[in-house]
Write a structure and sequence with these properties.
This protein is α/β, with parallel strands linked by helices and 302 residues long. 43% of the residues lie in helices and 23% in strands.
Length: 302
């Protein structure tokens, strides 16, 4: 199997046209078609429906696009790891949704650098469901997760080590000119503009379950924007576009400086735990999680 065949297929899925795909691959259309036929010979099934004056993609190809992309990425990484292997270096892949990567991973990396100087990290960000898939599939040996008290931890089984390595909280905050539009008691009016999470993302699920005002579109009267990215919500809040819920670790500097203000005294907060999962088949991953657990003086089972 030639890696170029997978790359060809991905370009074909993007372009939906043989001529345009061949142009992007910088080869002639006949040569591109021969490579697609080679891919079909390898898998033992056609991926193109060839009719008179018309060629279309088989639906099975589109349905497995994400798996093809993941496989292509893994092959490239494997090729790079072998080509650049150094006995003294170890690369650990960690997966997490975006908020912990911004707010928690830098501290973990600094601590690891002090005691595991040979370790290098590869980060794979995604929504929580994607991260769990990466972890279970073996694409990552460590899963960094935020978990609310109101939700059940993922059940991975005996081959996975779990450790609570910190605590955080989701707080409602306001920035920019909106800081001066609060009621006399510092409570935002019900139609206050806000930036919300979708209910199908992790933080959206937490806030919806707790029925927190301004957390999701369904709990708001005036949601100006909806996004699953906490870093995006932070920037919009600081620009004064709306109230938003953020992890405290992501915005405490701005709270201390007065750039944003918290209204948690009116709407409360959501406690969340910083949890690490390690695949016990990866010795380095387990050693890292054990060290982080000790360094942050917390118990593996809370």
């Amino acid at each position: 199997m030639d890696l170029r065949w997978l790359e060809d297929v991905l370009i074909l899925l993007e372009e939906r046209n043989l001529t345009r795909a061949a142009h992007r691959r910088n080869i002639t259309q006949p040569a591109f078609s021969r490579r697609i036929r080679s891919f079909e010979d390898w898998i033992g099934a056609p991926v193109l429906n060839r009719e008179v004056n018309r060629v279309s993609l088989d639906p099975a190809l589109s349905e497995h696009e994400q798996e093809i992309r993941a496989l292509t990425t893994r092959i490239r990484e494997l090729r790079g790891n072998i080509a650049n292997h150094r006995p003294s270096n170890v690369t650990v892949t960690l997966t997490s949704h975006h908020a912990p990567i911004h707010s928690k991973f830098p501290d973990l990396a600094i601590e690891a650098r002090r005691h595991f100087p040979e370790v290098r990290f590869r980060l794979r960000a995604g929504n929580q469901r994607d991260c769990i898939t990466f972890f279970l599939r073996g694409d990552a040996s460590i899963f960094l997760n935020y978990e609310a008290r109101s939700e059940q931890s993922p059940m991975f089984g005996a081959s996975v080590k779990r450790a609570v390595c910190g605590h955080d909280r989701l707080v409602p905050v306001i920035g920019g000119r909106l800081r001066y539009r609060l009621n006399p008691d510092q409570r935002p009016p019900e139609d206050f503009p806000c930036v919300t999470y979708p209910e199908d993302c992790h933080f959206g699920e937490i806030l919806a379950r707790a029925e927190r005002p301004f957390g999701t579109r369904q709990m708001s009267r005036n949601s100006l924007c909806e996004t699953a990215l906490s870093s995006g919500i932070k920037e919009l809040v600081m620009k004064g576009l709306g109230l938003g819920w953020l992890p405290l670790s992501m915005c405490y500097r701005e709270l201390e400086s007065g750039e944003i203000v918290s209204v948690a005294h009116h709407f409360g907060h959501e406690d969340i735990k910083v949890v690490l999962y390690a695949n016990t088949e990866n010795k380095t991953a387990v050693e890292l999680v054990d060290h982080w657990q000790t360094a942050f003086s917390l118990q593996a089972v809370d």
